[in-house]
């Protein structure tokens, strides 16, 4: 739920009107096409007619896990079965309707071991609620900051699982567009899950180009913010993967500068600072991923066959055969030692984000299980 970088520069495809009920928006046409052609390893959620709808009263609010500009995430427990979940609460006044609709739609239809699962979705007059997997290991960001940097072998484990998740998204015509340590969670078994699909893009084909300027500055591919009219495709996610790998290995994002304008300029004009402790295979991979020319950047097949991954069984990765490098010990189901104490110590309520009432997003409610 970190900050995102946006621009007012959007093309016609991105200026979507959700207010007109007489016209079907371009995005809705994409959704319809996506639903009708959902054939690649997707699990379509079967929604039963329920006599009682899920709402906030069906959950006990336990702890605050994190907060952002648009809302927060709580640890909650379902009252009828004591199952723990992470509940994302978003203000309707603070977030673009397109973003939350996209996230809900993707999570409703995606099923993958390295992507968080949506269990319930509902809304009140002022807020939207997404109830997802609770990953007790916390954010990769937390562990990276505590260690400062990872070894190549540690980094390789996380990067391999992320590659498998991104490849799955791309095969289903989805650009992720917000890969960063805060959006990678560590589960109880030490494996990862990607979260936060608000900035993702559903395309008609994976080679369709998008012109939205969204993402997190430190991990943003150059073609996303360059004003050349070319747009971007799935290659933008591989640049972000390179930026993430670089940060894991060095402790900071490539070309980082507190002055964002200077950071973007450095990204285009300065050579990549390849640290002396990196192996030649690792340097080669980073250069291939962080190539500013998207047409020359490594694609998924070149990445998986790269010498850096020569010992990796990619089928085994998908079945979680790799041994997690971080062993996390838990002192019970409410052990939140892998979360920021600043948030965990706050009361777990949904009341602090109080906004204007009356806004309704159509077709948001979704219930997977009976209350």
TrEMBL record:
Keyword Magnesium: no
Annotated InterPro entries: AGC-kinase_C, Prot_kinase_dom, Ser/Thr_kinase_AS, STKc_AGC
Alphabetic keyword roster: ATP-binding, Kinase, Nucleotide-binding, Phosphoprotein, Serine/threonine-protein kinase, Transferase
CDD domains documented for this protein: STKc_AGC (cd05123)
Organism domain of life: Eukaryota
Residue span, AGC-kinase C-terminal domain: 310-371
Protein name listed in UniProt: Uncharacterized protein
The organism of origin for this protein: Paramecium sonneborni
